[in-house]
Fold this sequence. Notes:
mainly alpha; 14 helices; two-stranded antiparallel ribbon
Amino acid sequence: MTTPVTDGAGSESRTSPGNTLRVVLLLVGGVVAVALSVGAAITLGPADVSLVNVRDVLLNHLGLADIPVRVVKDAIVWEERLPRALTAAAAGAGLGICGAVMQSLLRNPLADPFLLGISSGASTGAVVIGVLGVGGSVIGLSGGAFIGALLAFALVMLLARLAGGGTDRVILAGVASTQLFSALTSFVIFAFADADETRGVMFWLLGSLEGVRWDDVVLCAVVVAVGIALCLAYSHALDAFSFGDEIAASLGIAVARVRLGLLVLTALITATLVSVTGAIGFVGLVLPHAARFLFGPRHAALIPATALIGAVFMVWVDAVSRVAFQPTPLPVGVGTALVGVPAFVLILVRKRRAP
């Protein structure tokens, strides 16, 4: 019998060869589900595109075939829908793993990537660029959002350090930073934006994958892939953090250094994704709980599982948000909230009823 492993919310899990096989099968199924979801999402929209068209376009652009495809359909698949679906998958995976890591580091089941004020800081940066035009020709809206996110995170770390450190201080500093940057965002919009600017900024603030291109796909995919690799490298440390700082330190983990490094990593991932997609909530809050239910609390399985579930979730939320409210797509952040809130309520009720 192996020692029970407890996650940040207090659940227990035991490992066995049977459980290991189940986890492997679920992960393989998750990879297949991501591929099928991306393919299916590409076919959804006002223009008629079939899976055969998707296959032909992919084979042509990968240099594996030379199949005649209409120029319009090639452009729809390769230039519009495929980059959007892949960016959605990367965003869901990245926000999901950030939530899983933060819930373990802070031992708080309600922690998510935006707890550290990153989303609010990114929103302020984007609004300053979009409304005031400060440096817009140099760094653009996404660049402003990235800089704002990093400034917000730096403020949180400074406030937490001045307050004496500790996970509770980080959380309180994150709340303060969120309120500050939200107020700054509202002030800039109220004082300087006209009606058209306000509409455009608000749509971005609610999360949007409109207009993403292949350079956005590459950026998000590389950042998320590196993030997953680093999180997996520290999976045993994350397991130890779930028991508390004293247990982690007794196992030889440099608690302060590892926690800071992983928090910086989650901040960089979140800042990058938010700069491309806008603020998308509830992904990092809800999906780690779903992954723990299916795969258990051990981070060696939890990290890739959360990434796969997040990718599938975001692809379908974006696809439905895009086609259900034509001709104006629903902001994807609204879609994640509409799905995420009921799902989170179910998770809370299930945890309460669990023995």
